[in-house]
Write a structure and sequence with these properties.
Elements lengths: L4 E5 L3 H12 L3 E6 L2 H10 L14 E5 L9 E4 L6 H6 L10 E4 L12 H8 L4 E6 L4 H5 L4 E6 L3 H11 L4 E6 L2 H23 L4 H21 L4 H4 L2 H10 L6 H10 L4 H7 L4 H15 L5 H11 L4 H9 L8
Parallel strand pairs: 1-2, 1-4, 2-3, 4-5, 5-6, 7-8
Antiparallel strand pairs: 6-7
Helix pairs in contact: 7-8, 7-10, 7-11, 7-13, 7-14, 13-14, 14-15
């Protein structure tokens, strides 16, 4: 079984890339823009202003949510994590029961501590929530460069069907039923990528970067296991794989933001100059959820303290360097 008709909601960089992927897979795909101005732009230019230089495949139909409601055998919601609730709430009454609704954001909702599929389940109780995550940059995916990700749904049959529906020679989704593990990998790595960027901005060296990434991954695993995630998921594409990518490349928005902070820019200055970094919104809620489970997350806590203004960067670095010596684990 295959989802032949697929709707992609959100015509930003990632939504545009995924629409191109789905067209290459031979499915019927419609890219729905939430912003009427973006809709007019993509219809006129067949290019998203969020992904300049990448043409939208001619097989992708274009539409505006201002002019209709998306329909399909599966729906991908490609909006920032903090905007997901509003986006899926707008679909109430328009989604047929049993339709897979796939979140393509990496984060935890601030204020509620809800994961992406929990938001979908609350707003669209008749839908089947799923999550797509993994090491992927929109520009690479849109251009057809080889990429592997993880697609998780509550049951094996749905997960496999969705992976087969989206997959192609250059876009390989591995299917999973560990929904929570996939969500945690994507959310936590954003926070850790900010820390990696700070290390780069402060010019602390490659050894410090390796130590930070490794110890950050240990935090990700502890947090994930406390929330029921499977270790093989956390060490897979949506966990370790995504962490490696975003902690080592300036293409990562979170890494870029951290690097700017490390170079001495203020958060307000960086936010005005750059694009959204999901880790800014996730850091404090992730740390609070970790505390509730009795999980130590010193790297994430240092990032949250810097972002909240509780510590400056030098104080945060000193706090990490002066922690008591302990066995690795």
């Amino acid at each position: 079984m295959i989802a032949e008709r697929i709707a992609v909601i959100g015509a930003g960089a990632w939504g545009t890339a995924l629409a191109n992927v789905i067209a290459r897979a031979g499915r019927t795909v419609t890219l729905w823009a939430r912003d009427p101005a973006i809709a007019r732009s993509i219809m006129a230019e067949r290019e998203s202003p969020r992904l300049p230089g990448v043409r939208i495949d001619e097989r992708v139909a274009l539409a505006s949510l201002a002019g209709g409601a998306p329909q399909g055998d599966a729906i991908l919601v490609v909006v920032p994590a903090q905007a997901l609730r509003a986006a899926v709430s707008d679909l109430a009454g328009a989604v047929a029961p049993g339709t897979p609704v796939i979140a393509c954001a990496k984060g935890i909702e601030r204020g509620t501590g809800r994961f992406m599929t929990e938001i979908i389940a609350a707003c669209l109780p008749a839908a089947v929530p799923a999550i797509l995550s993994g090491p992927s940059f929109a520009s690479d995916v849109a251009r057809g460069l080889p990429t592997a990700v993880t697609l998780a749904a509550p049951d094996e049959a749905t997960a496999r069907m969705l992976a087969n529906s989206l997959g192609s020679a250059t876009f390989r989704p591995y299917h999973s039923t560990d929904v929570r593990g996939v969500e945690i990998g994507g959310a936590a790595k954003n926070v850790l990528a900010i820390a990696a960027g700070i290390v780069a901005g402060r010019k602390l060296g490659a050894s410090a970067a390796a130590a930070l990434t490794t110890r950050g991954f240990a935090e990700l695993v502890r947090f994930g296991r406390a929330h029921g995630a499977r270790v093989e998921t956390l060490t897979g594409l949506s966990g370790l794989g995504d962490l490696i990518l975003t902690c080592s490349s300036a293409q990562s928005r979170n890494f870029w933001l951290g690097r700017m902070l490390g170079e001495g820019r203020s958060l307000d200055e960086v936010s005005r100059a750059g694009q959204l970094a999901e880790g800014v919104f996730t850091a404090s809620v992730l740390v609070e959820m970790a505390r509730e489970k009795g999980v130590e997350t010193p790297v994430a806590a240092a990032v949250a303290a810097v972002l909240d203004g509780t510590l400056d960067i030098d104080q945060a670095i000193e706090a990490l360097l002066t922690r008591p010596f302990r066995a690795e684990g």
